[in-house]
Description:
4-stranded antiparallel beta sheet, disordered N terminus
Amino acid sequence: xxxxxxxxxxxxxxxxxxxxxxxxxxxxxxxxxxxxxxxxxxxxxxxxxxxxxxxxxxxxxxxxxxxxxxxxxxxxxxxxxxxxxxxxxxxxxxxxxxxxxxxxxxxxxxxxxxxxxxxxxxxxxxxxxxxxxxxxxxxxxxxxxxxxxxxxxxxxxxxxxxxxxxxxxxxxxxxxxxxxxxxxxxxxxxxxxxxxxxxxxxxxxxxxxxxxxxxxxxxxxx
Length: 222
């Protein structure tokens, strides 16, 4: 790769350039979020590489920006038509985003397994066991949801946790890890209309939510 070139775009705006060099709860969460709702880009025309964070929730981007010691501006992308390869077109929701120009951070993320245009090709990185709940929570806040069905006495009859990805291999590896950590009943990956999903119900759902949120050492969560 050669010597790092300090020039280029947002590189002039301050942030912690060494954030991804050492594992921590904060670093693990942000890495998980990047795997779900982020991207890294090699913009050769501007002689730098970019790390881009995207979310429908501005609040979580503000939290991530804070732990990165970043002063980059959060911008808004208005709704726009989307035409998937398979399935109906639709109008996207408005999104918030910010991006950091840093060859150093880009190189560190490559070493951790993140790649440009990663949506269909990502695999689960080698996360230390004591930070896996933070990584999972970061991914879930980027590309996960809780789904409830029916109500009885003001409580849902059924509750599910769903992880979504364009990479079935990533979800399979995530499912295997969660099964080993939490002794879950299954780890089947399903095909949805525009992506793949890893779904859990009832007791497995409660185990996963407890795993992700009860040990959170920071307020990095939705």
